Amino acid sequence: MKLSFRYLLLIAMTLVSLIPICVLALWTSHNALDNEYRTVHDKHLLLAKNLSQALDRYSVDALSIFNRATDSVIKQQISSEFISLFKDIDVESVGEYNAQGQLVNVLFGPAQSQPLSLIEGDNVFDLSQLSSATFTDVHKFGVANPTLYMIRQDNQKRIWLAVMNPAFIGLLQSAVKFGKKGHAAIVDRQGNVLAHPNKEWQANSKSLSKVNIVKQMMAGNTGVMEFYSPAVKQDMIAAYTIVPTTGWGVMIPQPLDELYARAESEINTILWVASLSFFACLLLSWWMTGLITRPIAALTAQACALAKQQTQLTPWTKQRIETTEFVTLFDSFHYMSKQVISSQAELAQRVKDKTADLAQAQAEALHLANHDQVTGLANRMSIRNTIQQRIDAKQPFSLLFIDLDGFKMINDTYGHGIGDSLLVSIGQKVAASLEFGDILARYGGDEFVLLLQHDNQCDIVNRKAKRVLEIIKQPYKIDGHQLNVSACIGIAQYDGVDTDTDSLIHRADVAMYQAKHAGKDQVMHAC
Predict the structure, then answer these.
(1) pLDDT for 179-220, tens place per residue?
(2) For the sheet containing 397-405, what is the strand order?
(3) What are the CA-CA distances from residue 332 to residues 327, 335, 467 (Å)?
(4) In angstroms, rounded to a whole number, what is the distance separating the alpha carbons of residues 301 and 308?
(5) CB count in 10 Å sphere of residue 42
(6) I need a surface site. Which of 74, 98, 181, 483 has the fewest CB within 10 A?
(7) Is the Cβ–Cβ distance between 136 and 125 less than 8 Å?
(8) pLDDT band per the 50, 70, 90 thresholds, residue 286
(9) What pLDDT digit, counting tens, does each position of 148-160 carry?
(10) Under DSSP, is residue 394 helix (H, G, I), strand (E, B) or coil?
């Protein structure tokens, strides 16, 4: 992706102005939210503590009435004054049990509300700590509906059980309402709902023990925290505390969205100011980038004209406001362009000459890589590559491995210079007699390889090999010396059996040595 310098500079200047504006806007917005959080912290925690005090006062009064009333029981009867007080504190029935937890008598309220035994069945009670009256946790098993009890054991080892109707607890909870979804919730020590705006949860005494804020209350903590409420399916912020007497948890939650809504007006004002500031910075940046980039654009146009070999350059158009540095740069560029134009022709000729030299050097390097330096024939690497190509292409051909007889004596007698000249003469004569497509290569020392294309009949190959022997046996006159040599030829024909160059050359080499053993000036092949 390509962008003009003006746009890049505009983006950079915009970012430079945008970052502090955004930081300031975020900081002030964050302060607005912080103010709301501090308000919620103070107000909600005060509400939670007030509600906790009311519940504590209620529980202290209820337990006191329960103690006094059960202590006053004479002949399994309770006075009408205490019955009235029980109704005031939402006691539905009171039962008397023996020390073994078996029901003895129902003193007040419906008998069916009292369990027949406190230790048998599903609805069992902990009878180990009954030295003082206490509220139980909500009982859910063995009862028609979740039930809250008060229980105590007197000095005569009688156990008293009061069935509670948590109407007053629900009344206190329902009295706390604020915002759209702000409410109060009360749970017992195990996290079971005692009072909640969700009446189904309240009726079933739903367990909220896995909710983080409920865990904090069950641990006896007090504070403010954020959590996700399954009841309203929203993120909430809530103050929480406990009721000292009963260990119940009290929380005052409110959706975070309502906090954001209250801070929205102040945040909107902040955003408007930030937007206007950014827009002003954007306009100023656009003007400044134009002031900087207009001379650069003019200079770029001049450079493009120079690249297209235009000899006439457009003069600089002065602006009302301009920068001294760019005017100086443009004048320097004019001078430089004249120098460039005058040297273009010379540079083009030099490039042409260098290109020609490079092409010649490449051609020479390629020739040296594939040809023998002495004879000019194809070298060992070149002929091996050609043989492998024929094998890969499954093309029929015959391979002649030629070894000169008596060449070492000529080298030893006349020197290597004469020997090299003899190799050149032999290579030229044999190559001149070949048919189109046949390839003669010097394999090494006094060894040659001849590739006969499309010839795979023994008699034809044998005839060509003998003709090569006749050519090699002709006398050679080099530097006033009469030289005579002969050769042995081993023939290997490609018939699809050989899979690589080495195996085919090896067969031809073995055949050549068989020809030497049979006598000089011989051809040996296996057809």
Answers:
(1) 788 889 999 999 999 999 999 999 999 999 999 999 999 999
(2) 439-444, 447-453, 397-405, 486-493, 523-525
(3) 9, 5, 78
(4) 11
(5) 12
(6) 74
(7) yes
(8) confident
(9) 999 999 888 899 9
(10) coil
